[in-house]
Design goal:
Isopropylmalate Dehydrogenase, alpha/beta, 12 strands, NAD binding, IsoPropMal-DH-like_dom
């Protein structure tokens, strides 16, 4: 059965890593069909819009998108494309695995965790955002809801149960931020009581960050609010070698977008230096999501085998290979 997915090639190094990723996916024979759609600076030039209606229609129609990094122009009048996509499709769960890979710059060899971040509310809504006329005071509101907290914590527990993970840690700051963070923690406790087969742990966010850099092996699934999740997931990427090995999924009830979470790296665009692993690992998450776990596992094992062999690795991984050569080496091990 063919699965059509929306492909957003992105800006900077985006087209290069997307070409490499689609090359490997084609070698998997996963029955994927691609529908190209524009977003970011390319879309702004072609359509006069960072996120054209045709792209939103494509994602809504196919329900699955694979996305390279996008640039949002600096300055007033431009809203973050990623934030806009999450709100438009109610992609409430941001899922970021962090797993140790061989022959990387990681200081640890035993990291295997997933951060589940609430993606649609919290500090990033920035409600009532304003700066006083004299420039001396700024204000931004934060909103947490029972519905948002309940569904993200439930998602974390269901993910743990379905993937054989044993523990969920709810990260909060309820000791100080007793309203918003307090509500999140209270709801997390209620949801946890419905999953007696999964260990539940509570941890204050500052302690969590310290524990992650001291003993990351103690964590399994971390669930938290939007701002804390953004910070923690990048911290976890640093534990395993950086954003070049960090995939991400944005999942809602009616659509899901899978992406490399690093930037567009315009300084190396078009030079074949970009590491495609983050987008390839996001593609593996996508394969899991559409019911192809065997192909997802084949892809992950091929990436690991290529890293172990140090075959055609890009410069950030200590090699002298290029983007497509790295992808070809991975494809040869499928």
């Amino acid at each position: 059965m063919t699965q059509k997915i929306t492909v957003i090639r992105g800006d900077g190094i985006g087209p290069e890593i997307m070409d490499a990723t689609l090359y490997v996916l084609d070698k998997l024979n996963a029955g994927l069909e691609y529908e190209d759609a524009d977003a970011g600076l390319v879309a702004l030039e072609k359509h006069g819009d960072l996120m054209p209606a045709s792209t939103l229609e494509s994602i809504a129609r196919n329900k699955i998108a694979l996305k390279s990094p996008l640039s949002t122009p600096i300055g007033g009048g431009f809203t973050s494309i990623n934030v806009s996509l999450r709100r438009h499709f109610d992609l409430y769960a941001n899922v970021r695995p962090a797993h140790t890979f061989p022959n990387t710059k990681s200081r640890f060899d035993n990291v295997n965790l997933v951060t589940v971040r609430e993606n649609t509310e919290g500090a990033y809504l920035a409600e009532g955002q304003e700066v006083s006329p004299d420039g001396e005071t700024a204000f931004s509101g934060t909103r947490i809801t029972r519905k948002g907290s309940e569904r993200i914590v439930r998602y974390a527990f269901e993910l743990a149960r379905s993937t054989g993970r044993k523990k969920v840690t709810a990260v909060h700051k309820a000791n100080i931020i007793k309203s918003t963070s307090g509500l999140f923690l209270a709801v997390a406790r209620e949801v946890a009581a419905k999953y007696p087969d999964i260990e539940f742990q509570e941890m204050i966010v500052d302690n969590c960050c310290m524990q992650l850099v001291m003993r990351p092996e103690q964590f399994d699934v971390i669930v938290t609010t939007n701002l804390f999740g953004d910070i923690i997931s990048d911290l976890c990427a640093g534990l395993v070698g950086g954003l070049g090995l960090a995939p991400g999924a944005n999942i809602g009830e009616n659509a899901a977008i899978f992406e490399a979470v690093h930037g567009t790296a315009p300084d190396i665009a078009g030079q074949g230096k970009a590491n495609p692993c983050a987008l390839l690992l996001a593609a593996a998450q996508m394969l899991d999501h559409i019911g192809q776990p065997e192909n997802a596992e084949r892809l992950r094992k091929a990436i690991v085998a290529t890293l172990e062999a140090k075959d055609s690795l890009t410069g950030d991984l200590g090699g002298t290979g290029n983007t497509m050569g790295f992808a070809q080496a991975i494809a040869s091990r499928l």
